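Case study B.
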Amino acid sequence: MSYFIEFRDVSFRYREDQPWVLKDVSFHVQSDEWLAIIGHNGSGKSTIAKLMNGLLLPQKGEILVDGVQVTEDTIWEIRKKVGMVFQNPDNQFVGTTVKDDVAFGMENHGLPRKLMVERIQTSLAAVGMSDYVAHEPHRLSGGQKQRVAIASVLAVAPQLIILDEATAMLDPKGRLEIMETIRNVQEDQDLSLLTITHDLQEVVKADRVIVMNQGSKWLEGTPRDVFSEKDKLRNIGLDTPFVTKLAAELSAAGLPIQREPLNHQELLEDLWTLHSKM
Amino acid sequence: MDITFKDVSYIYQANTPFEHRALSGVSFHIPSGSFVAVIGHTGSGKSTLLQHLNGLLRPTEGKVMIDDYQISAGEKTKDIKSLREKVGVVFQYPEHQLFEETVAKDIGFGPLNFNVEPKEIERRTGEAIKAVGLPEDLLQRSPFDLSGGQMRRVAIAGVLAMNPEVLVLDEPTAGLDPSGQREIMDMFSRQHKNNNLTTVLVTHSMEDALRYADHIIIMKDGEKYMEGAPLDVLVNKEELQRVQLDLPEVIQFLHQAEKQFGKAIPYQKQSIAQLAKELTAIVKGGESNG
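Model:
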């Protein structure tokens, strides 16, 4: 059993007189895995992310990162392993140039200068921003800013990157840029990925999905498993992808759709097979 | 209110080394009562265009006419204050502009500035908070105790309380979760119909443009790139790709299905259930040669 992250019966609340935000949540993230967490605003998704790198500490249960329990004493060690990119690109910049910004995280971890210079280059290259080393971050587009934010995280060489609605404020083109960047990086390096998102196009590409509802883990499985439970999802007011809805209506109209389609191509293939048999 | 742009150009910091032409020669006409979606990428001039609608910006060349108000270069617009009373603008992330002690005061701030009677302000505040789907007992709370989604609704209620005739919306649902996005857009759609508004929506969502708008304007590099009815503009794959926009997903799918089965299903805003029936007929039909 080598899980990179493990939550064991974790409960969390912000104050003692307030309700639990997370209730007895258990799950794991494997190495090299892409796990997506979906759920309403207020379902506890972002709290999970903050617990993973010690921005918050749980009142009950325990969280293990690479075998080490997250406590006040271990958070610095853990933050080297778990990097985070947040929603608003403008809130994450500290440096006056892209280079300074990427260097900032490494300085905090006390990396030697030579290694820093090297990592600035490799991490900016990984996100396709090598030409912007000397640019001012605030003059970049939203998608470029998030790519620099990812480079800053990569530079610390984490084993897990958490994207907390990191594409929510971007236009469609910026969104695509980021997801392509992340995929490339994940393929090149041994990285686990945790995305917290509302974007269903993003969710269907993950290896596994956890659905959070009112602070509890509500559903867990592959994207195909999860979206087959469309009635359940609708009951808690979550949306499903267009192909999922269409497949359900096609079944209702009398077509025996066999597998839950994840994209247009899959649904069209199945329809074609049915068509050939008719 | 009718909105007309006539050869409108706008240059930021003209006659300096930083001169930047954000709009060039933009003309269009929006009849009163339309719901228009303005689409285009970051930097296409959408936001600059929008700021002309209540006279925040004045064209460098050309003129903007809104009902009887005229905004043009070098001329003072008569009665610009009353124009601003009629044109309500919901800016991006409007919750950043909340500042009052209570939700009620924040919603009533606009009308108060336009000397609306206290009794009337109270009435409008009650109406506006209902319209955005928040309980009235929030009125005496501080807006800063609310969740992000609730703050967004309070900010929108503040614009509605002005009783505008034109609603200008700059990506009003950015950053909300999908059900929140749908609720807010449906609310604007209801306001539009019930109060006979003219609505201008700036959006990145082709889906929203298709669902809510009756007219589409696509901007590219400060110029008007395309304009027309949603079902004419939003089906044109090549033209849209040239400005890096995608077809709405339902239309993408129907194009692919047509390729596969050799038969077109024309999109006329059918429900998914209706589309499924038409598609089933084609799949079962058998006579297609694919």
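The two ends of chain B are 50 Å apart (CA to CA). The remaining cases will be described in the next quarterly update.
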